[in-house]
Amino acid sequence: MILCIMNTKIIQMTEELNCRVDELKEIEIIRVNKDDLDEWNIWIKIMDKYHYLGSPKKIGAEIRYLIASEKGILGAMGFSFAAWHCKDRDEWVGWDKDTRIKHLQGIVNNSRFLILPQVKVKNLASKVLSMSSERIKRDWEEKYGKEVIMLETFVDKRFTGASYKAANWINVGQTKGRGKWDINHSNSLSIKHIYVYPLVNDLQKALGIKKRKEKEKDWVLKEFKNFHPGDKRLQNRLCTITRDFFDKPEANIPQACKTRAKTKAAYRFFKNKDVKMEDMLDSHKTETMERLKKESIILAVQDTTSLNYTGHEDPELGFIGDSPNNKGIIMHDTMTFNTEGVPLGLADLQLWVRDPKELGKRHNRAETPIEAKESYKWLKSYKSLIPIQEQLKNTTIVSVGDREADIFELFQLTKEIENAPKLLIRARHNRKLKEEQQKLWETMMELPVSGKMIVEVPRKPGQKKRIATLDIRFSKVKLLKGKEYIEVWSIYANEPAPPENIESLSWLLLTTLETISFEEAIEKIKWYIIRWQIEMYHKIIKSGCRIESRQLNGLKSLRACIGVDLVVAWRVFYLTKLSRQEPNISCTVNFQDYEWKALYTFVNKSKNLPAKPPTLRELVHMIASLGGFLGRKGDGEPGSMTLWRGLTCLSDIVKSYLIFNPLHSLTTPALIMGKG
Asked: 2-206, what's its fold?
């Protein structure tokens, strides 16, 4: 039917189409013939009208396609030669300059891909991408006589790349904002994410690259390589303690350290005057910066929690809550996430104890300057992001906070700094607006609805998981305080018809990020939803690390131990989320060789190891199975706490494996460092 439409020149665009992909009886990728002006011109017309880059101006080696069904044309796509040089791609492939020049023609670039905006068919884009891989391989070899071994594409940072991810393309990094004509290194183009799709099983062999050995990475050494307290033995001891805590996260210090000697060494380490929590975390932050460099958008989520040490007889501890009898430490941390919700590391940490003399003095808040208030923590955290933003010129950092962060001075601060990090805050105050008769909430509620958003509401005590439909409104507003005002964008998401006896969802967000379209408003809401991940991090710290059960004398020792626990908790959280974002990367990127082999033989009850290491997702599922994860069809992915329980078992499995495979113990970093 489709070919008949094309042959008789009844070439028509699909009208408004909203259905499931399986309801389209037939989807066909039609190769556009340059000699057929009707086909050629319709392809150009589609690209010029709907694609942000338009149709290609310079024509070299290329093949173009129209995407069609019985409903008409659904979209278009084009392929051309690969980029001549791309740092992150080339590092991922692993070739040198000579090998790249020799084999570059084996890579083809998906230079254009577009589904028409009126076509709203979920999963259509990923299905078309999957269909096109074999088609372009066949057509390219037929036209140019070159075997295609890999596809690549560049996705502008304004897009999520979800379709490519769903079609199993691999994100290998990002561009530098240059282009083939940027001879002056002006970096004037937008940053793009790089995705690749290998079409052969052994890519390195097909590209003429000698087989590379996977490098085992000791994450503890990497995370603390910049910790230099003056004595190398202290760095070794920190690594040993961290591994012990990671192996037995729910254990107390003697149980985690296992021997009396190592336990005494741990207590001495935490008490040592040269061991400071700030120095440990500075090393972690240095590695965090390397992870941040790979992202175009970073969500720096800040939040406050209290660590309860009421049972400690330590005069250095302050009060928490509203009672002088509750003793502990206040913690305000800033965890960085990418837009997929993967935690990349801590950017800032503030710990303090409250003076009991300050209890009951809230009535004096109005006369107290912001710098003297506890709420200054939000501004201090934001200021810690400024030097990071200065180093990451091609990355947008967004500071995310809950209603407690709705502070006028925080928004003012963004106006005082050039190229300042952005803000995304949930509103707490119904502020007056400049040039408006009504206040913020009333003004936003009276705006017309721009569109609807469907969100999944997780289950909570007394309430099952459910689906909510939100009305979305957005507008630029001028928040007023006295005679001063700040200009921000406001996004209001409200559930107009919640189920009976269920409280309506309602979020009003304030942001310094330009929000001029419905799609941009949805994007900001999705980013804000990631804020809840920091609460999961706090749960891991308290329930997983049992950070509040540490028995240490003195605030100095307690702070040092907290520094270790924070990094251990981040690592578990990171592995959980990374296994969902990049499930197909080799597990050897994050686990030692002996660790995956020990786990594989235990879970499969076999000495026969696979020729290729498992993927990260496969190994995480194995670990989670030790913690009770069943892996049934409806179970989804394992959570952080399940993974945490599994890691506790993994430690004993690895030790048993090394007893029966002693050759591994000669090169095991954990055992070598354990002697220090």
From this structure: Aminopeptidase (3.40.630)
